[in-house]
Specification:
The chain has 736 residues and is α+β, with helices and mostly antiparallel strands. The chain folds into 6 domains: 13-96, 2-Layer Sandwich (Phosphorylase Kinase, domain 1), CATH 3.30.200; 99-365, Transferase(Phosphotransferase), domain 1 (Orthogonal Bundle); 474-536, Trypsin Inhibitor V, Chain A (2-Layer Sandwich), CATH 3.30.10.20; 542-604, Trypsin Inhibitor V, Chain A; 609-671, Trypsin Inhibitor V, Chain A (2-Layer Sandwich), CATH 3.30.10.20; 677-735, Trypsin Inhibitor V, Chain A (2-Layer Sandwich), CATH 3.30.10.20. Helix content is 28%, strand content 21%. The chain is elongated and about 185 Å long.
Length: 736
């Protein structure tokens, strides 16, 4: 039965801007949510740090600087960092939201991949890392879970900056990263550089080609031990027929000594693309065998040995999904987002995750069951080259000679490397004396011991001065924020430090002033250690796009793409531009502004409507003038009409009579010809009632004048009579 866990952040508004909609993933450092940026009206990935990290002020300051640095890294194959902040007890990062799946999901589904697909997928990853390395960034946690594949096929690397912030904020001896992909120098606590990312890429490419990782173990310490003491074997051991150039590429990237790896992502990218273009179609489309695709029966990973008949724990090509709270994937949401190898914090003993101290790890305690083969496979997940003797069952300490693995097929680069190693070994052997010098006299040995003691005392005195008062002594870095470069360098020089400067964008610190230092102020370090000063270049400005001429919806999309905010929208009439089209913007296009700057828009309402004036009864010329004065066009009908009430030459009617028109609209006027002329017949001698009806039917008005009371009802006289008069005229009848 699935347990439903309530999350207090769901449905809330973080920093009065980000509306939290759903939880995507949860890991050891943070929880990732799908949120909506209400200012820019877009979906983002909101990574909220766990409370124990949010309460660390030093960590929050470092995270802010790392986020600003990562935000400057803009590349099509790197997930963008959009914002960072602290809303009360909620510390968060805002990243680009990528809808799709991860490389881990693809490996889980497909198992071992053909070389063509594996090299095509790793190419944008290496290109993104190359851009980051060129800008001075190191990822430190490259793994399939951090390679995002969007639904439209875009491939991006996520989680830049967070691993460095956590690593440098945890206590001494702590390490961040997924142990399956950690380079030997990171396991040993040595400084990391671009070549550490290259090692992780090589491990990831090995897994893509074979369907399993080169080193495996029951506990992380076993895997870490193999990274330091083992050697990644050629993937062709598990995928017979794989091109030798691909074997060379994987082993070049995963060399134990960083000096033997590509210097950075760009160097690896050139070789990778050279190999892709020179392999044949048959080599690129090689179908992995069932053993590699399924991940079982492939032998000990990285050993170059065939599978033994005894059952060995192997990695499955499609392992079970991790639970919903697996390691968070920045800027990504997918039904299959759970990570197979979540980021593990290896540090203090009270940390619930695996503890891995700095320094060379000890061999993991292991004793196989009786009857275990002594062929050199070693314990499950342990690389056999780590020991010269096979492990024995409890109670049996008899040593059995170790059987070396058969030599792997070497490419040209690997052969040249082996030749150089042989030359170095021969040179060391030649420089080693075959016998010791003859013994001297006791007195001579006494003098020698005195000299040794004097030299040791001098060295101790020098070391004491060096670390007590000299360049090796410890001192606290003074605060240099908001000071000029000269002032900051003088403060550091007075404290005994030497410094370098680098320019960064900063929204708060004015240009030319120091933003901070690395290590930060208040940190105690040795005086000989260099300090980096970050000098503000002011806020980073971006040119505004051209928004005029498009619809309001297109303008909103353009603002979202440029990461700007929508300001005030004003509507106004325009006789030439249709309604809904943007007329102008403020600030104008091309103006350099910060991200999130509100841009005001003026949108057309279309032509202004004009009320139609009423001109009925007016003279024709006056009516035309009135229509044109209103901004309309007057059109006179060709046919005039008779009208009793409207004199000749005046407007009888208009169309339209009321309502509104746009400027330049037409009003049709009908002109009167005056009243119709009708001949008046004579009704003298006829009855008055009959005469009245006949005249009214002809359109006349009838007035009756009775004489002597009109007793007989006969029309004696009529005025006018037998003539034409205007229709509607008054006819007078005299009745007796």
């Amino acid at each position: 039965m699935q347990e439903h866990v309530s999350d207090p952040l769901l449905g809330t508004l973080v920093d009065n801007r980000y509306a939290v909609r759903s939880r995507l993933a949860r890991g050891g450092m943070s929880t990732v949510y799908l949120a909506t940026d209400q200012r820019l009206d877009r979906d983002v990935a909101l990574k909220v740090l766990h409370p124990h990290l949010s309460a660390d002020e030093n960590f929050l300051g470092r995270l802010g600087r790392e986020a600003k640095a990562a935000a400057r890294l803009s590349h099509p194959h790197v997930v963008g960092v959009l914002d960072q902040g602290n809303d009360g007890h909620t510390a968060y990062l805002v990243m680009e939201y990528i809808k799709g799946h991860t490389l881990r999901d693809l490996i889980n589904e497909k198992g071992a991949l053909p070389p063509r697909l594996a090299l095509a997928l790793i190419d944008p990853v290496v290109e993104g890392l190359g851009a980051a390395h060129a800008a001075g960034f190191i990822h430190r946690d490259v793994k399939p879970e951090n390679v995002l594949i969007s639904d439209d096929g875009r491939i991006k690397v996520g989680d830049f900056g967070l691993a460095r912030a956590v690593t440098t904020s945890t206590s001494t001896g702590a390490l961040i990263g997924t142990v399956a992909y950690l380079s030997p120098e990171l396991v040993l606590g040595q400084p990391a550089d671009a070549r550490s990312d290259i090692y992780s890429v090589g491990i990831m490419l090995y897994e893509m080609l074979t369907g399993q990782q080169p080193f495996m173990g029951e506990v992380p310490i076993q895997v870490a031990y193999q990274h330091v003491n083992g050697t990644v074997g050629p993937p062709s051991v598990l995928v017979p027929g794989l091109a030798g150039e691909v074997d060379e590429l994987v082993q070049w990237c995963t060399a134990n000594d960083p000096e033997n790896r590509p210097v950075d992502g760009n160097a690896l990218l050139q070789e990778l693309r050279h190999i892709r273009t020179n392999l044949t179609d048959a080599e690129l489309d090689l179908h992995p065998p069932a053993a590699a695709a399924g991940g079982a029966g492939a032998g000990v990973a990285g050993s170059g040995l065939p599978a033994q008949r005894e059952p060995q724990p192997q990695r499955q090509a499609n392992p079970p999904r991790q639970p919903q709270d697996a390691a968070p994937i920045p800027g990504f949401a997918s039904p299959n987002h759970a990570a197979q190898s979540p980021t593990e914090v290896i540090g203090r003993p009270n940390n619930p995750t695996t503890v891995l101290p700095f320094g060379k790890p000890a061999a993991p305690p292991y004793r196989p069951s009786p009857g275990h083969s002594s062929s050199g496979d070693g314990p499950p997940g342990q690389f056999p080259g780590a020991s010269r003797h096979a492990l024995t069952p409890p109670g049996d300490e008899t040593e059995v000679p170790w059987a070396p693995p058969p030599p792997a097929r070497l490419g040209k680069r690997a052969q040249r490397k082996a030749d150089k190693e042989d030359e170095r070994a021969r040179a060391r052997a030649a420089a080693t004396p075959s016998r010791t010098l003859r013994e001297g006299s006791p007195r001579r040995r006494g003098v020698l011991w005195v000299a040794i003691l004097i030299i040791a005392a001098l060295l101790a005195t020098g070391a004491g001065w060096f670390f007590g008062m000299g360049p090796g002594s410890a001192a606290t870095i003074p605060p240099v924020a908001n000071k000029t470069v000269a002032q900051a360098q003088q403060l550091l020089s007075d404290a005994g430090f030497r410094s370098t400067t680098s320019d960064v964008f900063d929204d708060d610190v004015p240009s030319g002033l120091v933003v901070g230092s690395e290590p930060e102020a208040g940190t105690e370090i040795r005086k000989f250690q260099p300090i980096s000063l970050f000098v503000s270049k002011g806020p980073q400005l971006f040119p505004l796009p051209e928004l005029s001429g498009g619809t309001l919806e297109e303008a909103k999309n353009g603002l979202n793409a440029a990461e700007m905010a929508l300001g005030t929208v004003t509507e106004q009439f325009n006789e030439e531009v249709p309604a809904g089209i943007v007329l102008s913007q403020d600030p104008p296009p091309g103006t350099p502004v910060r991200h999130g700057t509100p841009v005001s828009l003026v949108v057309s309402k279309g032509p202004e409507p004009i009320p139609v004036p009423s001109v009925v009864g007016q003279d024709e010329d006056d009516a035309v003038d009135a229509i044109e004065a209103a901004g309309l066009e007057a059109e006179v009908a060709r046919e005039e009409v008779f009208s009793r009430g409207v004199p000749e030459g005046a407007v009888v009617s208009q169309n339209p009579a009321t309502g509104t028109l746009t400027r330049g609209g037409t009003v049709t006027l009908t002109i009167s010809k005056g009243p119709r002329m009708v001949e008046v017949p004579s009704y003298i001698g006829r009855q008055a009632a009959e005469a009245r009806r006949a005249l009214e039917n002809l359109g006349f008005q009838v007035r009756v004048n009775n004489i002597l009371g009109g007793f007989f009802g006969t029309v004696r006289d009529q005025d006018p009579v037998d003539t034409e008069v205007p229709e509607g005229s008054v006819i007078t009848l005299t009745v007796v």
